[in-house]
Amino acid sequence: MRRAFLPIMIASVVVLPVWVLVGRALFGAPLAQAILPLALLTPLLAVQIGAVAGLTFARKEVRGPRAVTWHDVRVIGPWLLAIVVLGMLVVDGTGAGAASALTALVGDGALTASTALAGVLGLLVVLAGLVIAYVQLRMLLLETRARMQAYVDEVAHRPIVAQDAVFEQATFERADGPQAGRTIRIERATTD
């Protein structure tokens, strides 16, 4: 499931904003006056989903096995489902032909509830997208910091000079030539 969630999350960058924009028409709701606010909302959703997907995929623990963590599924999954539900609740128009996918399925009695839920859910989806992007950025930074700290610790404990070179005997000999100076030659000690 974790491995399948990654391509779903990446595909949702395009699919879910399009769903919010025109998905209601699949249920028979007419497209009318809500097209302008939705034309502004859908790019925002696409950017948010893209940012969350990018920050998630940037983590090595996701990139390596090409599978998200269970934390990602628990955090991002409900948010993506809320966007699907938002596409069903957005009401088209305010006149007699006003409807949403919910009112097309349930009946015109749900129009008021659909309008109220769409407003609240739309705001929550946008705010949740910002919070989730922050959480994913923080996880990326913490993972990067841990990897860098592990590298620094490894380098700090690595000897600067090879251990076998420390016990060698150095001899000094004069080099030949016009630019000759002192040369240090390290040779292995032979044990006879």
Task: Please give a structural write-up.
With 192 residues, the chain is mostly helical. The protein contains 7 helices and 2 strands. Strands 1-2 form a two-stranded antiparallel ribbon. A hairpin with a 7-residue loop joins strand 1 (169-174) and strand 2 (182-187). Helix 1 (2-22) packs antiparallel against helix 2, helix 1 packs parallel to helix 4 and helix 4 packs antiparallel against helix 6 (111-157). The longest helix is centred in the C-terminal third of the chain and has 47 residues, at 111-157. The protein is rod-shaped and about 100 Å long. The termini are far apart. The model has no long low-confidence stretch (mean pLDDT 80).
Any key phrases for this structure?
rod-shaped; 192 residues; mainly alpha
CA gyration radius, whole angstroms = 31 Å
Mean residue pLDDT: 80
Q: Give the termini distance in whole angstroms.
A: 66 Å
Instruction: State the strand order across the main sheet.
Output: 1-2
Report the order of strands and helices: HHHHHHHEE
Sheet of most strands: 2 strands, antiparallel
Shape: rod-shaped
Overall strand count = 2
Quickly count the helices: 7
Hey, roughly how much beta strand do the residues contain? 5-15%
- What share of the residues lie within helices? 55-70%
| Uncertain ranges | none
Derived from helix and strand composition plus strand pairing, the structural class reads mainly alpha
Walk me through the topology.
Elements: H1 2-22, H2 35-58, H3 60-63, H4 70-89, H5 101-106, H6 111-157, H7 163-166, E1 169-174, E2 182-187
Antiparallel strand pairs: 1-2
